[in-house]
Amino acid sequence: MRRNDREVKTRREILDILDRCDAVSLGINAPDYPYVVPMNFGAEYEAGNDSVILWLHCAHEGLKLGLIAENPRVGFEADCSRKIITGETACNYTMEYESVIGGGNISVCSRAEDKIRGLEIIMRHYEPEKEFDFPERALAAVCILRLDVVNITGKRLKR
Description:
By secondary structure, this protein is of the alpha+beta class. The chain has helices spanning about 10-20, 65-70, 110-125, 135-140; strands at about 5-10, 25-30, 35-40, 40-45, 50-60, 75-85, 95-110, 145-155.
């Protein structure tokens, strides 16, 4: 990281930033150029355990699923707390932000219990106090993706 004065150094702080983000942008390998798509998500992690899993949902068909089938190694980015900081000249302008980037291996979940787990975590991200049911028909209509994070870093600028 070039600006290590902006590096978020602790895992807890990185995960706190991720918890405040409302979407992740998934970067998928494509033949001619990277394919980047913003997605709703939920994050799963445990204290004392380094594993982080991002759960995402989408339709059962489309470009992203075809590309993932060819190469399951993906990158992701999430950011929040954006605020423009003005200055006397254009070169003095900057942006407050908090961001998380990383990469990992993504897979399509086929088992109903994995799909339910993923949906529960996604919904908890947006509605932490509410319980949801997932009828069989709804489970059949949605594709759940599991991203096992291999590397993750955080960065922030706060003034």
